[in-house]
Amino acid sequence: MRIVQLNPYHYPYMGGIEHRLHETARGLSGKHEMIVLTSQLPGAPAEEERDGYRIVRLPSRFTEIYNPPYVSTPGVLEALERLSPDVVDFHYRWAPSYTKAMREYGGKWVFTFHNTYGEGQGAGRVMSLANDALFCRHIRKKRVICITEFIRCDLMKRGFPPEKLDVIPPGIDLPATAGAEGEHILFVGRLVGTKGLKYLIRAMANVDGKLVIVGDGPEKGRLEGQARSSGVADKVEFTGRVSEERKVELLSTCRLFTMPSLFESYGLAAAEAMAWGKPVVASKVGGLPEVVGNGGLLVPPKDSAALAGALNELLADDGSRHAYGRAAKEHIQRFSWSNVMTALDDTYRRVAEE
């Protein structure tokens, strides 16, 4: 089959969705002709071959109002019709030029639901709810890939037929070697309000340890200011964006990982830490309980006291921390890329036959 992965962003921009696209296209390239159709970021070629699959980039306009930037891509529908795929897997519902193309597209396609319905805070949540309500009208009778059981259950409550919802999580690279244990607590992710980092920084006043925050985003300056005003600047290090090699080093040597999110459809960074045998302290929201399993402790969102208590519990008890770490490594094996590829291949074949 010829399968197109459609998303406004791809290499050299590589967030969680883009990493899934890359691994999917690479992993299935031995069975199918895999193409990623995306926007042309500045400096990127119009077309290239990468790890056995083809990337087709369309000239686009970008507005830097958020990260990733707002993108408008003329000609998405025409490009799809030229490529004439057997199946399209569409991944992003917040770029109007892409959603409009898919509403008009007459071929077979599936949508992958990556984020919580109506995700966001304040005005952002209002806009997200409105956008999702409009978009979901067009996919309610289509096959939808949900990255967690949490998303599947939420969509069923919103009228989606359960027989059309497949749960296929993002895959995880399983390290061949064991990680070491350092001293730092680690967070990796975008510095936005929904990650709950202000509650984590507040918790650090009562935690005997050092926190390393990896990532960038619109909340970075505010969070750095909070750490200074709260008297924990010596306990909290902001690294900004780091290379993939540095990220792996920090993941493989952290003492434990934390993800205090207010919304979280999956929690990729937590799963990556668990693959290194690291216990996790996370909020009991969205898909995080599925990802963490018995590999860590779950606390209520926005509860700095509970967060501090869970962090201190694992920091103080070596035996408990190591037991949770072993359980984390065992639990996350089910998210291997080989399992994910098998499930995706099955779904794409069913979409082509439906």
CATH topology of the largest domain: Rossmann fold
Quick one: how many beta strands? Answer: 16
The biggest sheet amounts to: 8 strands, mixed
User: Fraction of residues in helices?
Assistant: 25-40%
This entry's quaternary arrangement is single chain
How many helices does DSSP assign? 13
CATH superfamily (homologous) name of the largest domain? Glycogen Phosphorylase B
Uncertain spans: none
Radius of gyration using CA atoms only = 20 Å
How many independent structural domains? 2
Q: For the residues shown, what is the average pLDDT?
A: 94
- Indicate the proportion of strand residues: 15-25%
The CATH level-2 architecture of the largest domain is identified as: 3-Layer(aba) Sandwich
- How would you classify the helix and strand content by structural class? alpha/beta
SSE sequence, one letter per element: EHEEEEEHEHEHEHEEHEHEHEHEHEHHH
Distance separating the two termini: 14 Å
The first-level CATH class of the largest domain is given as: Alpha Beta
Q: How are the strands of the largest sheet arranged?
A: 3-4-2-1-7-8-9-10
What does this protein structure show overall?
By secondary structure, the chain is of the alpha/beta class. The chain is built from 13 helices and 16 strands. The chain has helices at 16-28, 76-83, 96-104, 122-136, 149-157, 197-203, 220-229, 244-253, 268-275, 288-292, 304-316, 318-331, 337-353, and strands at residues 2-6, 33-39, 47-50, 53-58, 61-63, 70-72, 87-90, 109-113, 144-146, 165-167, 184-188, 210-214, 236-240, 256-259, 280-283, 296-299. Helix 6 (197-203) packs across helix 11 (304-316).
